[in-house]
Amino acid sequence: MPANSPERKERSRNAKPRIERAALQLFVDEGVDAATTRQIANQAGVSEGALYRHYKGKDELALALFMETHNRLGEMLSEALSQPGTVEERIHRAVLAYCTLADEDWLLFSFHLVSLNRFLPHDTRREDDPVTRFERILEAMIAAGEIPEADPALLTAMTLGIVMQAAQNKIYNRLPGPFSAHAPAFTRAILAVLYQK
Prior knowledge:
There is one protein chain. Helix 1 (6-29) packs across helix 2 and helix 1 (6-29) packs across helix 4. The chain is elongated, with a radius of gyration of 20 Å. 31% of the residues are buried. The protein contains ten helices and no strands. By secondary structure, the chain is mostly helical. The protein has helices at residues 6-29, 37-44, 48-54, 58-82, 87-104, 106-114, 116-119, 130-143, 152-171, 183-194.
C-alpha cells in the first residue's frame, strides 16, 4: 500500500486514538518511565512505527496528553469563574467543571493528576495555566471585597487541594461514585476556606 494512499492515511488516523488510550493506561498503571514504546504499540495493536508517525517518542506523547487536559482545565475554570453570579455560584460552577472533566474521561484525568509533579516544573508559569487563572480570579474577588483579604497564592493552594486530594483518593479507590457526586461538599469546603478569618 503506497505511503500516501487514502487507506493508509485513514489507518494512521485511526491508530492515534488507540495509541493514546494504550499509553494512558500504561502511564497510569506503570508510570511514564517504566512504559516502553513497544508496550504502548502492542497494547494499541499497532506497530512501533505507527506510534513514531504521530509522536517522536513516549515522552512527547506523555507531555501532549498531559497538556491537553491541563490547558482544557484552565479554560473551563476560567469560563466558570468569570461568568456573573455570587461567589458561591461561581465556585460551584468551577467545581462542577473540574468534576465533569474528571467524570468525562477518568483515565485521562487520572494521568493528568498523577503527572503534575513530572510536567509542571518544566512548564513556565503562564497566565493561562489553571493555577494562575484561579489565583488571578481570587485576587480580583479580594480586590472587589467579595472575599476577605488573604494571600491569593495560599488560598489557591488550599482550595485546589480540596478537590485534588479527593481526586487522588478516588484514583486509589478510596472515594466511591462519580466525582461530580461530591461537588456540593467540595463547594462548601472551598467556601469555608475562602471566608476564613
